[in-house]
């Protein structure tokens, strides 16, 4: 259950001061409406049972607030205390705490977060939301973690729904959903400034300030971060952001929240197997996020509107002869009227935007029935040299969703969820979920569930046309194109979950056994002119592959295979199955001590069709996910001023898609902090050591060698 958060106050010189340090002028109405704002987003009032229980409530499984024991999926809650104990320097590192998840550096300050492996540097099977706004990039439906305008210190808590959650959040959530909540202006007070420096020449400056009026709470935060990246790699990066957020509560029944922000940075990215190909990606993002709640009796209406715009630009140019490995004089022979010139090998300028609007209705019908339903629409828009057609490509998506919680008895509850999703040019897909929760008693709970879900392809999967062109636009070489009949990915998930509590609910264990079958996964397949143009001479099964994947090797009448007879096609070419166990244990024996353990066993395997030819056409997907992963997080307050914490992780072999095989490795982090209180000011110094035993390992790809790192930070807060 989320606590009621009110504006903080403190005693000073015999009078009460508000969060700005001035005499308190908050009216009783403002205080009450602030409390109602916190309650209304839960969709239900507090009961005596809620006040006495340590069992938390979550909303990430179904969109409606439920005790975690009633949720239809396993949910990991990453608290503020856990984030502090981890000492994470980047937001993506926090997800190392989630069983079954993998978090990795793709380059010096770019990251990937995925569930159950089987991904490249741009994971695209998780829905990620920050304060209700879906933050995926429309090209690949992946996340640019360092452009979110969020640092670990800005987070209030995170909910991670593990397992397919399409029925609640749409096709991006085919393997799970992440909901990040930053500190609300209602629950924060005063201000803070912090500075952190450390390994890889990393420097972070972060500041925030809260303001309040009778009916509105505001928060302004700004940050700048830079790093030299991995040793020996030209992947230095820097990024800064400014974010203004607010909560407005005009009446006891109505509240509004908003967030407007901008982020701008330059990131060194590329394949470190070829160090000369590392180049800078200039990224400029801005967004607006508005949420409204209206509560009447046992009903809650929620509205959401957001807009995000991203302007990215990356360039790497080489001579065409160098790229093709031919003599410069041959260019004129192969392409009459042309001479050797610089050609663009990267994506160039990308202009992307996402509009999203949602309406939700929550209704507690009686003690046995609780529902949420809603409608939504979004428009993904992008313009890129790698997309088919000139100008912008627009893809509207319309969807309807709902979930019913039915308490069949005091011990048995059923959740039924459904998402209907209609994407332009693709068939409407229905993604249902059914889960049954059985409560042995107030401390021990069993869950059985099944889900069928679909992931709609992203823009760069439905409309990709990657090519090398001359400066006048003429085609030199076609590299990749999308199959016109590309279909959504399909996943079936079956699971049995257990949630138990001991020692007055200070110790909890969440365990989940599951089977996940993904079919029609989207990947690349190589096609060749020699085979596709002469299929009759091939074996029957190659003919079948050719009929399925061979496409024209020309664009608008221009040959796309002058330099190379191969073209890659984006299609539904892969399938895999993951069976496993995920478990996490959390123990809070006292207010000063925290222990969190997580373990995942993943038995994964599958295959993908790599080439249209009679040999080496099928690739077995082995080691796409680590078989065993274990982590432990510990924190203890030695005195009111001193806190020590540690994190340990062991990860077995994983073979990254388009990356490298990262061998089994372990890592141990430690941190020590000291706090001081000076009247209205609080100072804190923290030392963080990562991989302190220097068990160097690779992050995602070769040369991303993660060795021992150390950081020191200083922060000053005021009320």
Topology:
Blueprint: E1 10-12, E2 15-17, H1 28-40, H2 48-52, E3 57-58, E4 66-67, E5 74-79, H3 80-86, E6 101-105, E7 111-115, E8 127-130, E9 133-134, E10 155-162, H4 166-169, E11 176-182, E12 191-198, E13 202-212, E14 216-227, E15 237-248, E16 254-269, E17 279-296, E18 299-314, E19 317-319, H5 320-324, H6 328-334, E20 342-344, E21 348-364, E22 369-384, E23 393-407, E24 412-423, E25 429-441, E26 444-455, H7 459-462, E27 465-469, E28 475-482, E29 489-502, E30 507-528, H8 529-532, H9 540-549, E31 554-555, E32 558-559, E33 566-590, E34 593-609, E35 618-621, E36 628-637, E37 642-651, E38 654-655, E39 661-662, E40 665-678, E41 681-690, E42 697-698, E43 705-706, E44 709-718
Parallel strand pairs: 8-11, 28-33
Antiparallel strand pairs: 1-2, 3-4, 5-10, 6-7, 8-9, 10-11, 12-13, 12-44, 13-14, 14-15, 15-16, 16-17, 17-18, 18-21, 19-20, 21-22, 22-23, 23-24, 24-25, 25-26, 26-29, 27-28, 29-30, 30-33, 31-32, 33-34, 34-35, 34-36, 36-37, 37-40, 38-39, 40-41, 41-44, 42-43
């Amino acid at each position: 259950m989320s606590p009621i958060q009110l504006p903080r106050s403190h005693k000073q010189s015999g009078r009460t001061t508000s969060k700005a340090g001035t005499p308190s002028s908050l009216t009783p109405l403002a205080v009450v409406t602030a409390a109602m704002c916190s309650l209304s987003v839960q969709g239900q009032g507090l009961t005596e049972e809620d006040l006495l229980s340590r069992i938390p409530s979550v909303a990430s499984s179904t969109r409606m607030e439920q005790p975690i024991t009633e949720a239809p999926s396993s949910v990991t809650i990453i608290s503020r205390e856990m984030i502090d104990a981890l000492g994470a320097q980047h937001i993506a590192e926090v997800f190392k705490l989630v069983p079954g998840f993998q978090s990795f550096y793709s380059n010096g300050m770019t990251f990937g977060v995925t569930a159950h492996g089987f991904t490249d540097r741009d994971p695209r099977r998780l829905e990620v939301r920050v304060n209700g706004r879906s933050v995926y990039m429309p090209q690949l439906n992946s996340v640019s973690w360092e452009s979110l305008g969020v640092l670990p210190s800005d987070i209030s808590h995170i909910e991670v729904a593990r397992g397919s959650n399409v029925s609640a959040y749409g096709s991006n959530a085919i393997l799970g959903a992440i909901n990040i909540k930053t500190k609300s202006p209602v629950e924060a007070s005063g201000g803070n400034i912090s500075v952190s420096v450390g390994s890889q020449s990393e420097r972070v400056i972060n500041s925030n300030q809260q303001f309040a009026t009778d009916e509105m709470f505001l928060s302004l935060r700004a940050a700048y971060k830079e790093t030299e990246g991995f040793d020996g790699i030209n992947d230095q990066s820097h990024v800064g952001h400014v974010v203004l957020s607010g909560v407005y509560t005009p009446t006891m029944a109505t509240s509004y929240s908003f967030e407007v922000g901008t982020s701008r940075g330059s990131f060194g990215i590329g394949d470190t197997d070829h160090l000369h190909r590392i180049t800078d990606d200039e990224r400029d993002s801005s967004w607006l996020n508005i949420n409204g709640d209206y509560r009447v009796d046992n009903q809650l209406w929620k509205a959401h509107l957001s807009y995000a715009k991203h302007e990215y630009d990356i360039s790497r140019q080489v001579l065409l002869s160098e790229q093709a490995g031919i003599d410069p004089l041959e260019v004129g022979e192969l392409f009459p009227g042309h001479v050797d010139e610089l050609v663009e090998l990267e994506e160039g300028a990308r202009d992307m935007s996402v509009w999203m609007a949602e309406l939700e209705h929550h209704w507690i019908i009686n003690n046995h029935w609780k529902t949420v339903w809603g409608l939504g629409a979004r428009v993904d828009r992008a313009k890129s040299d790698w997309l088919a057609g000139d100008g912008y490509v627009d893809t509207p998506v319309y969807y309807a969703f709902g979930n019913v919680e039915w308490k069949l008895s005091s011990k048995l509850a059923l959740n039924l969820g459904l998402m209907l999703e209609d994407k332009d040019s693709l068939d409407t897909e229905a993604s249902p979920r059914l889960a049954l929760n059985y409560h042995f008693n107030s401390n021990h709970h069993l869950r059985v569930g099944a889900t069928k879900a679909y992931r709609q392809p992203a823009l760069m999967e439905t409309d990709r046309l990657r090519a090398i062109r001359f400066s006048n636009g003429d085609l030199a070489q076609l590299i990749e194109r999308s199959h016109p009949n590309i279909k959504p990915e399909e996943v079936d998930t079956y699971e049995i979950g257990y949630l138990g509590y001991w020692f007055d609910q200070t110790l909890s264990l969440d365990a989940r056994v599951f089977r996940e079958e993904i079919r029609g996964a989207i990947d690349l397949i190589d096609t060749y002119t020699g085979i596709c143009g002469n299929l009759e001479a091939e074996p029957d099964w190659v003919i079948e592959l050719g009929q399925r994947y061979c496409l024209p090797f020309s664009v608008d009448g221009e040959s796309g295979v002058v330099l190379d007879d191969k073209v890659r096609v984006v299609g539904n070419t892969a399938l895999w199955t993951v069976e496993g166990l995920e478990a996490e244990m959390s123990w809070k024996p006292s207010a000063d001590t925290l222990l969190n353990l997580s373990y995942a066993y993943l038995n994964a395997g599958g295959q993908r069709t790599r080439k249209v030819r009679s040999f080496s056409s099928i690739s077995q997907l082995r080691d796409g996910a680590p078989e065993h992963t274990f982590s432990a997080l510990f924190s203890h307050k030695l005195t009111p001023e001193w806190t020590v914490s540690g994190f340990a992780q062991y990860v077995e072999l994983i073979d990254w898609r388009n990356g490298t095989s990262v061998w089994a490795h372990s890592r141990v982090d430690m941190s020590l902090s000291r706090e001081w209180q000076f009247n209205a000011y609080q100072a804190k110094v923290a030392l963080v050591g990562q991989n302190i035993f220097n068990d160097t390992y690779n992050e995602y790809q070769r040369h991303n060698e993660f060795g021992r790192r150390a950081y020191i930070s200083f922060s000053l807060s005021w009320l």
